[in-house]
Amino acid sequence: xxxxxxxxxxxxxxxxxxxxxxxxxxxxxxxxxxxxxxxxxxxxxxxxxxxxxxxxxxxxxxxxxxxxxxxxxxxxxxxxxxxxxxxxxxxxxxxxxxxxxxxxxxxxxxxxxxxxxxxxxxxxxxxxxxxxxxxxxxxxxxxxxxxxxxxxxxxxxxxxxxxxxxxxxxxxxxxxxxxxxxxxxxxxxxxxxxxxxxxxxxxxxxxxxxxxxxxxxxxxxxxxxxxxxxxxxxxxxxxxxxxxxxxx
Length: 248
Description:
Blueprint: H1 3-9, H2 26-40, E1 45-49, H3 56-60, E2 66-71, H4 73-82, E3 89-93, E4 112-116, H5 125-138, E5 143-148, H6 151-160, H7 177-180, E6 187-192, H8 210-218, H9 220-223, E7 228-234
Parallel strand pairs: 1-2, 1-4, 2-3, 4-5
Antiparallel strand pairs: 5-7, 6-7
């Protein structure tokens, strides 16, 4: 491995992954979905919506993928200072609802997995539908992984307000998951992702120890109280083509 390749695959100093930095709960499910997709499409593009200063590239890099972090311009400037763009990872300064970031995916035929933890729940329902439809049209054969609060929890969060710049606007109950497919005919499957085994020291569902994640997930009453993580799958293309600039 050359020096440039080694630098590309290593996390910046002080940002290395390890047991203490392992994602918890929903984050592990998102990571597992990305790894599973990369096993089938090792040269895919991973689009991390709203990643902020996250280090997913260095945690999930297989040496062949392309990683795009989509954040607002004000966040992009800070991120580039900490994590300068590399040959296979770069920051895209664009609002999630702009849809201009879709053009940054240069080879969708190699596969695309979009991650949106904490993102869709902060969009109005119409923007959620528009985003799902745009991805279904532009990324055939790809997937989108997102998390959502139950509707009662989303309503409670809206009433409580908070100091964050983006309030919770959209909630989704597990019984409503099949309806997500109605956002676009190109959506062929929507499924909830179950808990991912981890060290007992790592928190899991709702901050519970990992050993309790399974029992909580299996009890309907308790499951209804916890956030969900879901994967949306898009229909494969009949023929390989590059993305166009139009989004309907």
